[in-house]
## 1
Amino acid sequence: MPKRHAGIRKAENGSWMIHTRIALPDGSETTVTRRGFKTDRAAFEALEKMKQKRFHDFLLEQRPLLWADAAEEYWKYYSSKNKETTVKNSYYIYKKHIIDPFENYSLIKMMLIDKLREFKKRIESLNQTGRSKNRLLRYMRACINYHYQRGNVTPEEFKRANIELESVYLQEPIQKERPTWTLEEFQKFLSTFEKTNKYYVLFEVFGHTGVRIGELRGLMVKNFDREKKEIFINQQVTSKLGENAWKILTPKTKASIRHIPLSPRICALLSLFID
């Protein structure tokens, strides 16, 4: 004998019908009645969809937060935890691919499985590297996690999002090795400058120490220790903030703060240049 489902019963004309009460999270109940189903299974599936819709409609009333506002709120938090250059360079793609396509949706609607899959499909179709696609997926998961931690996303939605937004696997093409100069080629390049030229000194230090360009630009006289024959890297200069401006920032990572020993020749060159 087939299993009977609660709230489903056979009507007088032989069809199946729904007649039950659906409980909402606040303890209230709503009565639903629908007729004309050919099988009890069809009626049961329709009832489950109705329960889900009523539940999400209820949550929408309780959580009217728009997705655009939710995503912007997370980005403010992200901005407070990351370097200014990282934030500025990343916001454009975050807004273009995560906020703008869904800005008129609510947060609760974005948590529906079809919207999560729509977002994943959008990202997978981008003409970008797998690394770039996975970065966008990480941003999305991080945004959802942020709102889960604050009670704006349910545990079920959080679990579903992490499953649906799993990172993509794409085998990246092997990158060609970047051409590098030999010592002879580098010396030939330096020979195009007078030894008293500031750029000669700059490139000599650059080639000798291997510092990042931003770190090189951030060097000051106080960073050079003649007695210890070393330079101290504790800042960098960036021009990536737009508006033709430059700014002094801390190095890329904590490990980037370091002392770099110098050869006697480079020390003499710097001393001559500074004096």
Note: Residues 45 and 189 are 75 Å apart (CA to CA).
## 2
Amino acid sequence: MGVATTFVGGILFGLALAAPPGPMNAVIAEESVLRGWSAGFRAGLGAMTADGCFFVLSLVGLVTVVQRRPQLQTVMLAVGGVLMLYFAVGAVRDAQSFVADETDEGSGFRKAFVLALTNPYQLVFWLTVGVGLLEPGRLDVFAPLPVVGGRLAGTFVVETGEPLLMVGLFSGIVVWITGFPATLVTARQRVEALAPAIAWLSGLVLAGFGLLFLVDAVGRL
């Protein structure tokens, strides 16, 4: 029971990392509706590859260097903001013309990978939750919840520091980057007008986060 709980807990953490709306899912959505499921999946693989890099850096302790150097975080915010604005322009251009470059099948992977590496929020996950999951111990998932935490305490406890927890985490990410593009492609096939609309929305999300990152970077100077 403990092994199964730890694996399921890892899946939940992976979904918690991958599923929230943000620049990564904007890129996945754009690639999915313009170029199909495989392009959306490759974009998801780009973001997951960045998580793999952060995971390795966490294991060797290098991720904490960024935590100790606020100036590096500022640079990451600025670079990430500029890149998001750049990719937002491309998304809007695709939405206006509704023409996708089918020959550039690796563009989604590259975009998501670069954006994820310069995304401080993704790094913060590995500096906080990720590091906590790597350290040996026990985590009572429901205990911190308000109101019901006391009654649910002890019902869902995962073993942190276990390799199976990390396997579950990356399995959860795979579930998301497989299912999310599939859902979008299915919706597009039923409503063709959805594709340019999602491309527009992806561009707006990227632009919004790009501006947010740049404002945050300027505020740190």
Note: Residues 2-220 form one domain.
## 3
Amino acid sequence: MGLRFKFNLVLSIVFLLGITLFGYVSYVMLQNNARDEVLRSAGVMMEAALSMRTYTVDHVAQKLQASQGEFLPESVPAFAATEAMNTLRKTYSDYVYKEAALNPTNPRDRAVEWETDLINDFRSNESHHELIGTRMTPSGMSLYLARPFQIKDPACLVCHSTPNQASDSMIKLYGPNNGFGWKLNEVIGAQIISVPMQLPIDNANRAFFTFMASLAGVFIALFIILNVMLSVLIVRPITRMSAAADRISVGQTDIPELPETGKDEVALLGRSFNRMRRSLEKAMRMIDQS
């Protein structure tokens, strides 16, 4: 096993360990950054929906009802927020906002199976104020951000306690079987934002592969440079010394001296070898003369 082979073996082992460690750390960091980016987008959408709800309550609902004297869906904060987000979906079709409920007034807000699980989690665990997770959709992996929707305003029960207390226009629009029986402080649904993760994950994977390819390129260049330096500075001089020592060992002393340029260890070894050869020649001449 030659010196070059041993050197390259150690260098390869160090590189494999290093690239495995750095690859794992960088992959985890990039994936976490992608998730954080998606989560920030979901948080911005959630706050936008809440802002729309607040604006509807403070500036729209009472004026609409006062001017028309009848129930208008546009005066409902959930309806306004959903419509605003549906407009956003015309540009970003994979971004979804839904105020899912177990017993909604508007049938389009009825919770599907996985949304029902989130709502039941909020209903059974009062300490849960936010749920974050991922789910697979036809368009790829999607991250969801969900917050409970709880009846805190007694005024909401005027339209949602029993059908006979609701306005005739609301009953005419949605029927007597939807959105009734709600109770104060009850979690009746959840506000759910779904944001696609595929693009950020693809970007993270692309960055990861670019980083790993760059790291491999740097190693290959370093591997070549170190091997050239090893060959020129160490292997080749030692090979010449070994060949000279072999010739001297069989009595061939008529060989040129080794180069002694430089002040490194190889040059010192070359000077020592030359002195040893000269001393050996003198000793052999003295033996011949005697």
Note: The domain at 7-204 is CATH 3.30.450 (Beta-Lactamase).
## 4
Amino acid sequence: MTNPLLTSLEENGIATVTLNRPDLHNAFNDDLIWELTDTFTKLGANPDVRGVILTGAGKSFSAGADLNWMKEAASYSTTQNLRDAQNLSDMLNTVNRCPKPTIAIVTGATFGGGVGLVSCCDIAIAVDGSIFSLSEVRIGLTPATISPYVVAAIGERAARRYFLTAERFTAEEARRIGLVHETAPTLQAAFTLTHSIIKNILAGAPSAQTDAKALIASVVGREITEDLRADTALRIAERRGSTEGQEGLSAFLEKRKPTWSAEK
């Protein structure tokens, strides 16, 4: 049986995770969902990993849910359906909360849950010609499980259009509404752009990047209160006193690269 997910790790600490069901446009099923959860949990905990690239084998990034899997789920009890939905939610949450920087490289069809997966990554690049759709209402469903991540990425206004119409939109429109950060003319160009982004990631302090991701999650949507200001003051004070903070300051003053830098 072909592994639904492929993982490799380069010497520079960048892992590449590839959705590997190309004949089915990398559609989700139980196996792929479990593999994604397990893989991102392990990569997130691995101190040798500096970042993760997520992409898809074949012509598509991910066409969302596997139709055969969904057909089987149609006969499930409410309890069974809830279990499946929770597994999908757990996977998305694991990718979204991965403490390492994550980059999605998107090509071809990206529908439903595939859009959710892109939304869970920190950075996303789409190849020109890619097509996106939040297609759930066309088959009588809603994008419920992916909605927190998609709305965070594209905002309420765009969600009110694309959740309801399920219309397809282009890579350029995905960039305009915030689903992806950049577009590239070819897949090779997308990887070239990704390597440029990775160079910047590798210039940063690993634990500081982890803390920066946690900081965003902590402050987003919150009113600026005394408690929030106290929390952010504590976070920067702890960073300044940390080993990385001390090393970063020393390297800056001594006009040298810090110890974590790939460029010496």
Note: The chain has two domains: 5-201, 205-253.
